[in-house]
Structures are given as structure tokens and as C-alpha cells.
Please model this.
Amino acid sequence: MEGGSILETIGHEIIGVMSPVSICMLLVVLLVYSVYNPSSAASAATTIRTAANLVYLESPSDSTAQKLEGAVLNAVVFVVFLTLVTFLLLLLYYYRFNNFLLYYTRFSVFTIFSTMGSSILISIVQRFNIPIDAVTFYILLFNFTVLGTISVFSNGIPIIVKQSNMVVLGIIVAAWFTRLPEWTTWVVLVALALYDLAAVLAPGGPLKLLVELASTRDEELPALIYESRPNIGRNSAARDSSLGLFVAAGLGMSTDNNNNNTNNNSGSVELQEMLRNGDSNNGNEARGGGDSVISVEEEGGETSPLMQRRLNDPTDYNNNNSDNNGRVLQGDQTEEVEMEEVNSRGIKLGMGDFIFYSVLVGRAAMYDLMTVYACYLAIISGLGCTLILLAVCRHALPALPISITLGVIFYFLTRLLMEPFVVGCSTNLMMF
Model:
């Protein structure tokens, strides 16, 4: 298969992921620039206290060395805390506390919509002097919270409504995190990119262990994930979500080098039929007493790319190389079926990626719009590179490292080099 055909095949899915990411970042920039900008009179002057700044609370009077040291300490504590929580999640999932994890995720979403969302809405009302009474405000907030929570987890909701509420969820959390101190924000972003890289790809990474455990059970963890296409099928209720801080394609490929062919269809059923004595064309597919097992894909069913079933029976190889009609596929025909699976499942992006992309551009918006443009282009370029690697590697990849690294580099290059150059040229009428 030609390399370009892969990118052409998943082009719509790439746009389907980049568009909501761009919308999320744009709305966070507008929100930060109009409400949380330090130059705004209605800006929240107090710094919030979260798990990202438990050790050190930055003060404008502190020296650069103190800010850097405190930011590093905050980032280390936050990453350690995140690692412990992930291992706790692994322990709970190992002992099959699936319902607890699902209900906890729902409660977290409800809390985000109700508490963080209400704080942001109050700031908007105060900033733009919107005439509204307290009773009406809390009624609207209650409806927004309940409907938003239901739409995120329900399968009966239209996919556009679910995707919109997922984006709103990312905007709320990202706008909240932009209120962290400046030095802490940048160091925490870099630390999260490194953590994401190690947790997903390292042999003993907590997220990798979770994925491997879920793969052996042919299950998917209850978490928040944005899907570029709707999740339809009889098992879709248990597959609404996946691990955060991931980007993953719908092409299920085994991570075991010894088992490159996997059974990617959880909704497949085995139909046994007796071969006719005079049918010589099906003679090569016969097993034992003349029976043939045909793998038939259930309409609408899909398997998560992260939670895949490993082959224990070598005879499953024939099933994986058969299409829906039971015909044996070889070579290029198998690759064409794989690309059709990509088209039918789409690309998935964890909500953590939405949040921290938006935190980066939101922090850049507090300085200048020129840095916002640079950071946005850097993040989109990094996400595109990650999706290209995803099309080549065909297994789950961390989405933060490339985008966050490019975003941080472009921010400081623009702030320290490009902006002084452009402003100097403009003030001296060298360019306008």
C-alpha cells in the first residue's frame, strides 16, 4: 500500500479531530482575553489553589530563581499525584470496580459543569453586565448541568450534541487552569508532556499497563474521550470512552510482535456450515470433519483500538483475512479491508489533550495575540504530526508531547524574538 493512501483515507477523520480542537482553543482564547485577562477590570485577581500548585504559590515579588524552583516543585508534585491516581485506577480496574469508575466519571463531569461552569458563567455575567436574577440563573445552570452530563454519557443523544458538550467540558476545565500562575503553567505543561510520553509508551507506564489489562479482557476503560464519529453497536454503552491523554485510531493492531493478526471485531459471530461434497472451491477452508468457520461482522459493531482481543487460536488467522461475506482475502485485499475499518471507526482524542492544548493558547492570550497565533499553528502542526505517526504505527500514541513541545518553543521564540523585531520594525516604519 502506498504511504499517501493512508493519509487520504483518514483525511476526513483528521479534519474531524482538528476542527473541535481549534474551536475549543478559539473559545478559550476569547474567554480568557475578555474575562480573565489581567488588564480586565473584572478579572479574577486571586490565584486558584489546585493540585498543580500545592507546594508553591507564585507571587509577583518573587525572584526568577524562586519562581522557577517553585514551578518545578509544583510540577513534580502534580506528576507524582497524577501517577498515583493512575495506579489507583489500575488497581480498581484490576479488581473489576468498573461500575465505581463509571459513576465516578459521571460525578466528575457533573461537578465540572456545576461548580467550574457556574464560576465561569458568573464571571461572564459580571464582566458584560448581563441582566439576570439569581433564580433564573440557577435554573438555567441546573438544566445546563443535567443535560450536559446526560449528553456526554448517553448513546441516544445525537452525536453533534455529544461532541458539543465534550468541547464545552474541555473549555470549562481549560479556562479554569489558565488561572494558574504563569511559571507554574509552563513547567506543568512540559512535565505533563513528558509524563504522557512515558506513561503511554514506556514498558512499565501506568497507562500502558491499563491498556494491556483492558486488552486482555476485551474491554474499554470508562473515561472521557472525543470521537470523530458516532459509536454504534450493541456494546457501545460500555465503549463510550477511553483513556485520556491519548490519540488513537480505529484500526485495531496488536502490540505483540508475535501476533500481528488480531480479531478486531467484538461483535463477530461464528457460523458453522457444512461444506458440500462437490464444492472444490471451499476445500482449502475446510477444517477437521469438513466444517468451515466463517467470521461475519455484525452490522454497526466496532472494537476500540486500545482494547483489542489477542489471538489464541491460530485458525483465527483465516477469520481475520475474510470479509463480511466469508471470502478469504490476501495481500492488498486485506489492506483495503483494514482501511475500510479506519473509515468506519474514526479517530479518538482524549479530553486531556483538548484541555492542555487550550491551556497553552489561553496562557499565550494573556500576553499577546501574536503569541496566540504562533502557539495555535504549533499545536495544530504537532497534532498533525502525531496523526501521521498514528497512521504509520497503527497503535495508541500520546498526543501531548509533540504539540506541547512545539507550542512552548514557539511561544518563547515569538515573545522573545519575533515580537520585539516586528514591533521595532513597525514603530520605525520599516514595515506596516
User: Anything to note?
Assistant: The chain has a mean pLDDT of 74. The first strand starts at residue 225 and ends at 227. The CA atoms of residues 117 and 172 lie 6 Å apart.
